[in-house]
Write a structure and sequence with these properties.
Strand content: under 5%
Helix content: over 70%
Structural class: mainly alpha
Number of helices: 14
Order of helices and strands: HHHHHHHHHHHHHH
Distance between the termini: 23 Å
Shape: globular
Length: 292
């Protein structure tokens, strides 16, 4: 009710979106419910559910099965942006959020276009390719959430600081999910970086602990650390209602990076999560601050 979602059918759509989000990432859902102001909660939940639904349709199953359902979903989203109507309850909730918060449509369209291209991803040849990936996919995906805190979208300064965060999160994701990605035949680290340290894809796939692999991981960690450090400026232009969540996201990203740094070349053999104690400590601290 605090978010202006009063119609019964619309509340049902948001409730459905909440279940989709909670099933996908329960911990993240709990953080949103605990740290975000009531008037923003349904909108963030709808955005996260939309991202989860889109990601699942694009990623799950053989490519020949994914393509038809992905194209149908993409067309439904595009038509929904024009008409404001949709058959899918997650999309209906998201379209209402887009309308109420005046989320710029170009972020949604850019995200869809880049996700379509991602279906045929073969790897980043260069750092420039990676930067293009951040601009076309990682940043639009992040802005579907971040831009909701500013009705009509944030300004250029806000966008540039979100861009640093998108880059940091993406580099971090490449490291934490390296084992899983390699197992599925994907490698997101730029080939240019592997060549710089004399590392082959086979070396990473075999999980070898070599000086070259350690140097590659350390180099990627340094680049990630710099992007996350630059992202701290994002707090200066974060809306008060979003600030507890923003602080938590920034701190937990740096915490996870520290765990990667300690793991070193073993990131080729196991995924790296957040652990339990630190996330709970951050959540409780920010919850106390937001309710004080």
């Amino acid at each position: 009710m605090a978010a202006g979602v009063q119609e019964r059918a619309l509340r049902d759509d948001y409730s459905f979106a909440a279940r989709v989000f909670a099933r996908r990432v329960l911990a993240h859902y709990a953080v949103v419910r605990l740290l975000v102001a009531p008037q923003l909660q349904p909108h963030l939940i709808a955005a996260y559910a939309f991202l989860a639904r889109t990601d699942d349709l694009a990623d799950q199953g053989p490519l020949e099965q994914r393509l038809p359902r992905w194209r149908a979903w993409s067309e439904q989203v595009g038509a929904g942006l024009e008409s404001g109507r949709a058959e899918d309850p997650v999309l209906r909730a998201f379209l209402h959020t887009v309308s109420v918060r005046q989320l710029p449509h170009h972020w949604v369209l850019a995200y869809l276009k880049a996700t379509d291209e991602e279906l045929h991803f073969t790897g980043h040849a260069t750092e420039a390719d990676f930067q293009h990936y951040v601009d076309t996919l990682a940043l639009p995906a992040l802005m579907l959430v971040e831009d909701l805190q500013h009705e009509g979208g944030g300004d250029e300064v806000f966008r540039s600081r979100c861009r640093s965060f998108a880059e940091g999160l993406q580099r971090l994701d490449f490291l934490t999910d390296l084992t899983e990605d390699l197992g599925e035949g994907r490698l997101y680290l730029p080939q240019e970086h592997l060549d710089r340290f004399g590392v082959t894809r086979a070396t990473l796939e075999q999980g070898e602990d070599t000086a070259a692999v350690r140097e590659l991981v350390a180099y990627t960690c340094r680049r990630t650390r710099q992007a996350l450090t630059d992202s701290q400026a994002l707090l200066d232009c974060t809306a008060p209602s979003f600030r507890p969540l923003q602080r938590a996201l920034l701190e937990l990203a740096e915490h996870q990076l520290s765990r990667v740094e300690r793991t070193g070349s073993a990131v080729t053999r196991r995924t790296v999560g957040y652990g339990v104690r630190k996330p709970l400590a951050v959540l409780l601290r920010e919850r106390r601050r937001s309710t004080a």
